[in-house]
Amino acid sequence: xxxxxxxxxxxRIMAQEAPTDIHSSLNETxxxxxQDAKCAGFDRWHISSxxxxxxxxxxxxxxxxxFWRAEAARLDWFTPFTHxxxxxxxxxxxxxxxxxxxxYNCVDRHVQAGHGDETAIIWExxxxxxxxxxSSSFSHYAAEPEILELTxxxxxxxTSRVANMLKSLGVKKGDVxxxxxxxxxxxxxxxxxxARIGAAHSVIFGGFAHTAIAERVxxxxxxxxxxxxxxxxxxxxxxxxxxxxxxxxxxxxxGHILNHVLCLKxxxxxxxxxxxxxxxxxxxxxxxxxxxxxxxxxxxxxxxEPMDSEDMLFLLYTSGSTGKPKGIQHTTAGYxxxxxxxxxxxxxxxPDSGQLFWCSADIGWVTGHSYVVYGLLMxxxxxxxxEGAPNAPSNDRxxxxxxxxxxxxxxxxxxxxxxxMKWGNELPAKHDLSSLKLLGTVGEPINxxxxxxxxxxxxxxxxxxxxxxxxxxxxxxxxxxxxGAIATKPGSCTxxxxxxxxxxxxxxxxELPANKGGLFVIRKPWPGMLRGVYHNRExxxxxxxxxxxxxxxxxxxxxxxxxxxxxxxxxxxxxxxIDDVIxxxxxxxxxxxxxxxxxxHPSVAEAAVVGYPHEIKGNAICAFVTLKSRWFSEHxxxxxxxxxxxxxxxxxxxxxxxxxxxDTIRFAEALPKTRSxxxxxxxxRDVACGVEKITQDTTTLEDFTVVAKLxxxxx
Length: 715
Ligand code: WTA
What we know:
Number of helices: 21
Bound molecules: 5'-O-[(S)-ethoxy(hydroxy)phosphoryl]adenosine
Distance between the termini: 49 Å
């Protein structure tokens, strides 16, 4: 893309007030204008000018029902819906009366239309060299590295077989199946198999530890877990089955009855322990099933269950500002309509045009759900899945993958881009990245330096970059450039998606003038919106709908918990979360979640966790910890030291997972509190960022009394 020298203007990049921002010293932005399609390697754009976008957007918000009716017509229905929307704030029902099936829309309809032999998924495993351990019925692995291609027909037969396996384990329409797997194609197959029979899936990221698994299984009332013996990650094996075993012990001790564990053999390194077979632990042979044992016992014919538009498609747990993760509920028709539209338009997906899309996110996060699996399969553009880490075996693995498979679309997170920058320009330069036509980012604000680097060193200055802003709760993109229509400014997610009525407002719901920071809201319902927090009506209402109202009608607006501003061109600049949730390496973490893990350690009396800016990860975690006096008496003369820090960090890793491991642990005699007893987080954030000068030596024990007294009146 030709950099447009164009009007240079001074813009404040991501308001300084927002503590979670990537601080950027850039005080000017460049504008990159959409280029003609040929130049970027596309045959055509779905939307090819700003005027066209503006016209479509205006109409989509003025008459959302007409817009979404047309989008829903791109799906295949068993029964047509009778009306588009029933809206009783905050409850929406979309495509009322219709029935359809998500797996049918991703797989079967393509087979029926004669595309059965086309590639649906290309998968590359992390290890290089022949591996024979993978036990599924896929047989055609190449030796170096492991590569697998699945056609729509194979996907249909695999999902049907797994659907029948689930049925044979008693899974029924409406049940919730937990999936805890590595990034192998069977993970996508398992999700689609659930959808096929009308069971909702709840995918848990493979980096979570046993406590986090058990908590989610209990909350979801889930009776079946699909897992694998292990997964490859950075040359190591992640002991997934061992984590599940530990989770099952916890479940047993909580009286939660887990009926079955279905386990894929991926690494052959983690045989199920005796624990699975001892009757008194209730996790016996009848509860444990190898995937490869069960597969031959069923057929590969299984019809797609007609599902009501509003039947739940999946649950996905996300962090909230309280310690407990929230089970975000998405329904079938609304999710599919929103995700197929956003994938098609934001990435300009065109079937049969040689496109290959690679989203590097793990399927355990919403990005993987929407833009590794559903959005791509629905649009019949092949999706690439990679099992492992970007630095396995060397730091250029991603560029090697792009060159090997001739990837045309690459979608990743700013934190990854910053890591690539650190690893050096020569790594991408070693590989032929000329197949790339479009780049995307997601997950957090991208700092302009990283944007420009991505543009130059990965996109070869010719690929449009779509900076897509959205959330687990929104199902798909909310603000994003449309590559043929909307000029980009590094660091801005530009303009709202079609059908999305976005605004930046103040607490009383009034829209703010240009360049004033405020709350990011969506004023009208859209099909992909979450339908609830599982079994927690109160949290659904208060978290998302209780804060901001339409000042004229009193109807609630959807509040994203993000701060944002719009510039004078109407472009959105997301400033980050305004609640106690932090983004670490692109992953959401509730500070309370980490605090709960810390206080579950027997020596910890109290803990407070805050984020502070980190060059690569976006944010790092700083934990302030007060130890119990017993610890001091038991360790006479010892001050809390690095050994104790290590112990606490490992404890958090064990409880929640490595992504929650604090980067810094600081010990305090007491935590600073307001008179009403609330921890003064802003003060702690300042301390963590190094803003506040503590009058005493801060290396061992912090004494917050001085600063706390100074600040107490402000809070
Ligand atoms: C942040 C990830 C700025 C935001 C899809 C949001 C972003 C949270 C962007 C949701 C972006 C996501 N620019 N901020 N392009 N994309 N965010 O649920 O704070 O894991 O609320 O969904 O990520 O994170 P989640």
